[in-house]
Amino acid sequence: MAGKQIVMKKAAGAIIAARKRAGYTQRELAEKIGVHVNSIANWESIDVSPDIYSFSELCTALNISPNYALGFDESSEVESLKKEISILKRRINDAKIAN
What we know:
Layout: H1 3-22, H2 26-33, H3 37-44, H4 52-62, H5 66-69, H6 75-98
Helix pairs in contact: 2-3
């Protein structure tokens, strides 16, 4: 499978999962973001990808990040942010102790 098809397949799976988790049918989601139900069906079957505006509306409606919608794993990103927060908290505490 070519690279583009792999990304589109992962994205379709992520969109389907997010739509179902949000409790929307394809028709309900289409109405919410102002597209035809066939557009949602096509995005979920990797026939076509959404235009940038529809993609933005899709992410907003499903309360997902663009990275998640593209099928990328965000757990490593979240863990990285948690580590950075932990480091910053330690620095703040150290600064309070030093004063």
